[in-house]
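Hi R.,

As promised on Friday, here is the backbone we talked about, encoded as structure tokens. Could you run it through your design pipeline when you get a chance and send me back a sequence?
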């Protein structure tokens, strides 16, 4: 590595958020899922090589947040040892359907610097079993939030489920359904009654930060950001890693590739760049807009050892 360290980054959240779609395979078949594909190719490396990759990025960009998505990332080969290596220098957040063996997880994973973003999928698990598993994990300091897709057939349970998770101190996120159901195209075709139900649940979010996040999730930020070709810090503060290892500045279709995650000379942007891609991001880092919301939308716990600042 001949370049100097480029951390902390100059603007909120001061650490890089690496969205790693590690593969598309999943053991569930949710009717609203746009991604699962058990046949899709993905980059497979031994844990030791992944550690080399992420240690290199630590030297260059400091301790970042590695956000696993998929598919179901916990099914990736050697996932638990991989998390064990990554959590030494980065914080790790795992979007998961929580289908893994909780006892095995507790035995194998240290809770420091690892967080779960659990998605409740009612076609595959009961809310009661899901909550019981979460509480077991919490008891062992494996903290998790919950995400619920506002799929029309599941909407009648929205308020009841929100109440039961929030009563246990668990953040409850409401994800708008994006797709077709019953001849309608969502989210645009939510009925006034469905929209009112969701608005009511958003207003019942347990604390202001979650409420702001739930509001942003409904697409308000997307509509604002889509109105122009703005300067955006995605690509500087954020990168999307696709299953084949391609790194792009964000998740939207048509944005530039920055290289591959295994490239020794992989570089993020060092400044915001103009973007004319059709923006589908509810957390777009549009300069002048996102900074005020960064505390709520881009909250990342600091690493317990590698705090902000050159190390
Ligand atoms: S658990 Fe997640 S990745 Fe798997 S099918 Fe459901 S929504 Fe898709
Ligand atoms: S598509 Fe949106 S989030 Fe992505 S770089 Fe462009 S403005 Fe930013």
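Update: got your reply. Pasting your designed sequence below so it's all in one thread:
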């Amino acid at each position: 590595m001949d370049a100097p360290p480029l951390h902390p980054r100059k603007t909120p959240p001061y650490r890089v958020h690496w969205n790693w779609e590690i593969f598309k395979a999943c053991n569930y078949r949710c009717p609203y899922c746009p991604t699962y594909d058990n046949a899709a190719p993905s980059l497979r490396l031994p844990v030791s090589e992944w550690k080399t990759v992420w240690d290199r990025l630590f030297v260059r960009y400091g301790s970042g947040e590695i956000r696993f998505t998929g598919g179901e990332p916990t099914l990736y080969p050697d996932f638990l040892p991989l998390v064990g290596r990554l959590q030494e220098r980065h914080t790790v957040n795992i979007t998961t359907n929580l289908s893994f063996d909780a006892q095995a997880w507790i035995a194998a994973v240290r809770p420091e610097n690892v967080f779960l973003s659990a998605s409740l999928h009612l076609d595959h698990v009961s809310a009661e079993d899901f909550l019981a598993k979460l509480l077991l994990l919490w008891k062992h300091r494996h903290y998790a939030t919950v995400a619920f897709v506002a799929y029309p057939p599941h909407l009648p349970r929205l308020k009841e489920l929100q109440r039961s998770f929030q009563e246990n101190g668990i953040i409850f996120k409401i994800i708008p359904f994006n797709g077709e159901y019953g001849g309608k195209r969502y989210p645009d075709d939510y009925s006034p009654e469905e929209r009112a139900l969701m608005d009511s649940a958003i207003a019942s979010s347990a604390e202001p930060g979650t409420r702001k996040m739930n509001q942003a999730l409904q697409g308000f930020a997307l509509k604002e950001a889509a109105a122009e070709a703005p300067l955006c810090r995605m690509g500087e503060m954020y990168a999307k890693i696709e299953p084949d290892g391609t790194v792009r500045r964000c998740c939207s279709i048509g944005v530039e590739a920055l290289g591959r995650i295994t490239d020794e000379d992989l570089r993020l942007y060092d400044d915001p760049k103009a973007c004319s891609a059709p923006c589908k991001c509810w957390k777009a880092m549009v300069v002048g807009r996102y900074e005020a919301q960064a505390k709520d939308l881009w909250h990342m716990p600091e690493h317990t050892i590698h705090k902000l600042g050159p190390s």
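One thing I noticed while checking it: Helices lie at 47-61, 79-86, 102-108, 127-139, 158-166, 192-203, 208-225, 294-297.

Thanks again,
M.
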